[in-house]
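Notes, Module 5: Reading structure tokens.

Key idea: the token line is not a picture. It is a compressed description, and you learn to read it the same way you learned to read a sequence, by spotting repeated patterns. We will look at two proteins. The first is printed below with its tokens.
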Amino acid sequence: MGRRTIDSLFDRNNLSNVNDNFFELYQTINNINIDTSQEIEEQLSNVTEQLKSYSKELNDLNLVGLNYKMGEDLFNKPPEGISYSNYAEITRDSYFSGLNDRYSSFGNNKITILPGGWFFYKIKIDSFTENTFTMVAKILKGASVSKVQYRFLDEGQLIGAATDFDLLDAENNIYGGVGIQIKSGKYLEIRFDNREASSNMVIENPVLFEGSEIKATDSEIKNIYLNLNRSNIQNNDTNQTELINHYSVPVKTPNEFEIKDHVLKDRIMTDGKGNFSVNYDITTNKLTGGQTYYVDIINGNDSNDGLSEEKALKSIRYAVEKSKDNDTIFIKEGTYFRYAGALFAKDFNKSLNIIGENDKVNIVIADQPNWNKTSGKTKVYEFARSSVRNVINIKLNTPLKNVGSIDEVDTTTNSWFTDNTKVYVNVNGTPNDNIVPIIAGTNFQVSVLSSNIYMENLNFIGGNNGVQLNMSKGNKAYLKNVNFYHSNPTFNGIAIVGGDLAILENCEASYNSYDGFNYHVGADGSLPFIVEIDCLAVENGSDKGTAGVKSNNGTTTHDGVKSIRVNGSYGRNDGGNVADVNSGTQSWNLGCSAFESYQGKDFQIASGAIMFLDNCTGFGSENSINVGNTEDTIYTRMGYYQNKLIAGKEILY
């Protein structure tokens, strides 16, 4: 996605003179949150011309600079069926503090408040780096006595009276303020008050930013953790074809990138404006010629032959035992625990297709829990299980907090403790099978392959690594819609070692103890060529910047491995978000974003590595680009980078 910064000028005391422009800008802000990247470019271009046309008229006034750029909207818009508090928990929102509402409802980016009701939205401001805020909202419906206000609060006390927002655009009923001063307090409360009205109040798409800026919100930032119904945001085959036709110009491989005849040669397309797509169908790499074995945790039975859905097996373990090279294992929706002490055999050595029915196929390195109330405790439940490394809420895809004793569990909601014989949890109720103790052990590990492996629609949870592919020269791996979460301490989400080629499309590696995506040379000296397309890696590296300099990354290549990443998002990882190291290592990154590293490094190279950045974006870290050694070289073309620390060379190409 292209990134642009547009400088514009507004007179805050004469905003009525630019109402029409302000309304168009507001519409653009909200549309950008859901449109495709091409539509964003077109709208930004239009806004640029609009701002040019009227900033000349204001240049003699008392002006306030207003940057229009990508940012984080602090006013949450939860999907239907998720409360504001749950959404904040899922997305790890550090700003949301609470919601005080009555007779209100929300959905489709609208808030509806009945007569006598209110909607007071509170955020934390004590960690703001600027002493101003900006809020804009459109009131679709409201009485003259309906109020749009803000108020500052401290712990347990109000600070002054509520203050009315300005009516910025009377014709379109736009309320808000730009660069409002924060004088005191730890909290800001945005208040939509309909208590005195006799009719409904309806608010559309309120937006809230730190500072004196209105920004186009990047949905990747706020919703980066939200993995509910991911299929809704993927292009279907028709849309993908239209997209490829629109992005009609092939991107040439950089001259200095060593591998010229790679799998994506002439298949990476651009619109010429810095947007990219990939014309490649990974599903053509499925193995052929074998049988299909079906697995169904709900209706299956391991005494069946597994050769039809009606006679499906119950456990993955038995399907693997029955299968031979080139067979397919088709896994129905459900959560699959260890069975008879195993999920997959550790010395996995078969070239198979392993395909899930949809995105709700969970493969968990855990025994199915049987929770019982702990005697003498108020909220604690227990399960007899040793070697527990973590406890995960599978439904929310979040870990519980590890505390130091059973008593502490009893007083701490969403916590766990183990005495190495039993595991104890407090989830403020009776835990179900979604509360899972992850144990030490391997989830899925390939040791030898006769040819290739293909995987699709699988969620691997836990493990020493979540998935480990130990390949040799001649082996290839293809992964589509495969996710790797919550690896055990000192392990990665996915580790690929050796082989000829690994392509990962729309895969996610998040919340892992070490790296998300990790790639190394093989034991036989083979160097896998790595391709990541539309992949995501966030919150990897469990230390979160608290244990000094560590290299726990979102995605990382080593040992001379070559890679291409297209349209990936990598953020909030302990170390460098995108980190490539060692002499001979090269990566070509197109349209990727990296942000908010706990150690302050977005795109990082060291020890002789070379990196190419084509219209990538880095923000929210101390250094968007970090070139650590004099022998390192980074090539950049277009893009947006807030800060750079370059000990080696940067070459514009």
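Here is the second protein, with the sequence above and the tokens below, as before.
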Amino acid sequence: MDSNEEEGESDEEMEEDGADEASSASAAESASPPVGAIPITDCLFCLHHSRSLVKNVAHMTKVHSFFIPDIEYLVDLEGFIRYLGEKVGVGKICLWCNERGKSFYTTESVQAHMNDKCHCKLFTDGDAALEFADFYDFRYE
């Protein structure tokens, strides 16, 4: 008799337990933001911290003239700002130059670039807008 069978677990049950542990570990990893990502309550363009996502968007709009195109069709504001925070904080990518321009080594340098060049806006011409499609719903009602 196998020691696993003595304890009341078959090989199949043990494999299922291992799969459950692996899936919960990967879910926890995907839930935590990548290292360097700008939190949704922090400005994408400066060091300002807001108490809420809505106040943060209001700050970025007022201070940096940030504009979210077609906001009436935006269905996931939190996910949208989180994505932009990863793009700037992790990828060190200017939202306007969008990988077309030079690369940056720090979050501070890409933020300074966006402020200095008035690039506190999204590049959405042509196919570039498809990058943000998951956050919008343009279906006619």
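Summary for the second protein:
- The chain has a mean pLDDT of 83.
- The chain has five helices and no strands.
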